[in-house]
């Protein structure tokens, strides 16, 4: 008899990082979020592949796309040690929309707590 596998939907987690964060660092953040059981959404990594930030119109479009993606996420994960102006704006948007805001370390602690509690 074949066993039916139940797949739970993973929550989207928006990666909030410094605008000048290196792609290798963004990839590490995304990997860690993925390993913690979430779907990382990182506009700085993905959308910069096709948008030209030197172009003012495309930079505005990037900000609009990023905001739309953030609003579809269940949480915002602050990555890195310092908070830039653009990160503060993203956090403010998340708070206005009642989106959970945490740090990467906080997300890891939540996961550890859930595993410890047998969840």
**Rg on CA atoms, Å:** 16 Å
Helix proportion? 40-55%
Q: Tell me the fraction of residues in β-strands, as a range.
A: 5-15%
Order of helices and strands: EHEHHEHEH
Q: Count structural domains.
A: 1
Our measurement of the CA-to-CA distance between the termini, rounded to an integer number of angstroms, reads: 28 Å
- For the largest sheet, list the strands in their spatial order: 2-1-3-4
According to DSSP, the number of beta strands is 4
Could you report the average pLDDT, rounded to the nearest whole number? 90
Count the DSSP helices: 5
For the sheet with most strands, the description reads:
4 strands, parallel
Shape: globular
Structural class: alpha/beta
Organism: Ruthenibacterium intestinale
InterPro entries: DUF7768
Protein name: DUF7768 domain-containing protein
Pfam family, one: DUF7768
């Amino acid at each position: 008899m074949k066993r039916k596998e139940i797949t739970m939907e993973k929550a989207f987690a928006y990666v909030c990082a410094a605008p000048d964060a290196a792609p290798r660092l963004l990839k590490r953040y995304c990997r860690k979020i993925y390993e913690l059981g979430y779907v990382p959404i990182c506009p700085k990594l993905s959308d910069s592949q096709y948008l030209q930030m030197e172009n003012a119109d495309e930079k505005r479009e990037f900000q609009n796309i990023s905001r739309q993606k953030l609003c579809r996420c269940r949480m915002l994960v602050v990555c890195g040690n310092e908070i830039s102006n653009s990160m503060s704006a993203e956090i403010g948007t998340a708070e206005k929309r009642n989106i959970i805001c945490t740090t990467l370390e906080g997300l890891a602690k939540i996961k550890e707590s859930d595993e410890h509690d047998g969840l």
